[in-house]
Amino acid sequence: MNQPADAILSLVLLSILFSFGSSRLPSLIKAVAFQGIVVSLVPLFVGHELTAGGVIFTQVTLLIRGILIPLCIYMAIKKVRIRREVEPIVGYHASMLAGLALIVAAIAFSRKFDLPGIGQYALLLPTAIALLVAGMFLLMARRNAIAMVLGYITMENGIYLVGATFSVRAQHIVEFGILLDVLAGVMIMAVILQNIKQTLDDVDTALLRTLKE
Amino acid sequence: MVELVFIVPLVAGALAFFMLGRSGRPLLVLTGAVHLALSVYLWVKRPEALFPDYFGVTPEGLLSLIVISLLFFLISIYTQTYLARSAIQSENIFTGSMLLFLSTMTMVTLSDHIMVMWIAIEATTLASAPLIYTHRSAASLEATWKYVLICSVGIALALLGSVLITVAMDVGGVESALSFSSLTEKARGLDPTWLKVGFVFILVGYGTKMGLAPMHTWLPDAHSEAPSPASALLSGVLLNCAYLGIFKTHKIMVAAGLGGFSGMILIVFGLLSILAAATFILRQTEYKRLLAYSSIENMGIIAFGTGVGGLGAYGAILCLIHHSLIKSSLFLTSGNLLLGFGGRLISDTGNLIKEMPRTFVAFFAGFAGISGIPPFGIFIGELFIILGAFRAGHYVAVGLFLLSLCVIFGGFAHHAMRISFEESPKTVEMKESITLVWPQYGLLLTSLILCFWIPDTLYQTIIQAVTIIGGGF
Fold this sequence. Notes:
- The complex is a heterodimer.
- Chain A has helices at about 5-20, 25-45, 50-80, 90-110, 125-140, 145-165, 170-200.
- Chain A has one domain (about 5-205).
- Chain A has seven helices and no strands.
- In chain A, about 75% of the residues lie in helices and about 0% in strands.
- Chain B is mainly α.
- Chain B is built from 19 helices and no strands.
């Protein structure tokens, strides 16, 4: 743990635990926003030389991942005023425990890989894996449509971490395109969330069960 | 020049959002015509792209592009009358999204860069989401939500897969551009383990979008809730775009000597999809969902054929082309049924042969074509796939394949007979104007002609597309 990168990556791991345990949506959004900010800072501390373009791109990523995307979701829930909490499929305490188990498993699992260039960052691969699985967990364990979107964003953060650190080749223009896609996707989801609330008067996805087979 | 093909509909789509009332309708046909002209130009000249790092003209891309272009042009003609007859709110969003959808799908067919391919495929999801929500009902909202969430999560996995392929480059110490063509050339140097993991993620990711079981759950909902012209595009060409991503990655795998691994996975997912379609098609009560399950079946057949390789891969491409032509015509016809009978249930319809004779011709010919009745193209494609699978020794798989096809044929035929000949609950007073049936006739005739006569340039392009994965005779 003598690398600054590992120190900030441990913050990401904490944000996962926090997001698993928060029953209120605003705090869940804050956890994911914090996660987005920290994840976009990671490339500054990891490995390869920084170019001017790289620094600018990091700032753009920070703006979109850490601020714009959470803001979209926040605006959506503000507009629709969701008061009632939807009971999750997996409870919050059980989720916390699962989160801890997930982090341990991710660290144990990532020891099996020996990747060139990132060997000295002990937490990089575990964090990426933990984010991916955490996102899928939120998608499956929550019935609240907003929590599901946040799960998707967590997953995207994990993939960003894999991409930003492993492939030095990815050109910024391409990365930017990916980022725009994610942003547009979240915006569309936010619009759908608003409509779900207006049409069904709730965001419980258990109500979305009319279409079958 | 190459990039112009997707920039034109992009600009037109952006414009269409600001065109109020019906003024966007002519733009749809106009853009379709220009797009078709540009695609034919690309086919004949095969020029270099302005940004060769990101875009390129490939044989498999051209095949998809020309199908997209032809379909969109005919569908845009149909849409004119469809829009006039059905009450659609905010038409500008509908036309704008249709054009953006065309643009993003074109971008998929022309992209050569792994990440640009991903960006384009995700963009197709985003551009088509408003189309599914056109009717503004609770059911269409649910379908849109499922579509956007399931496809976005699925495609996110494909992004992970694409990133893992770059890891395979790093670990294998390969210096290469991130394009499919260059990676296929240098595939031997890529690290096989990471490449395999990457392929699995890409297959699951793009497979979600392609409608392969068990990730297909969004597909019947989205196809049944979208207005018929949009369903025709979704089923006819969007699924092909996702397939293109899988096909190109499979090419890298075969070039890396891992074709056995990726082929086996394709066969398994293909069979699963065909079996899933066979299970669900029997008890469908809505005709559009029936068509959607048939799309899942056909995507399964195509994945199966690609996995088999050899003659099967050639058959898969034939099925791909004919499925697009026939299925989109069937979805347009389902629009006529909806306009005429006013309900989406199969029990709402009946006696089509008397009530809507012109639509009946399109419907029944489409049914015969899609079920693989000889001598239609799907039959020839399936025959090649079966022969290819026998040659490769997949006897059990072929058994399951044939069994499911029989079940699906039985189920589909049962419903098709009900719609065509049995008592109708009501009389139809809709006028079948030329633009409501001729686009379907055009699509079906194209398919029919291609059964008997494949132009040499088309044949050569198919062969070029499949030689790398060991396809051909």
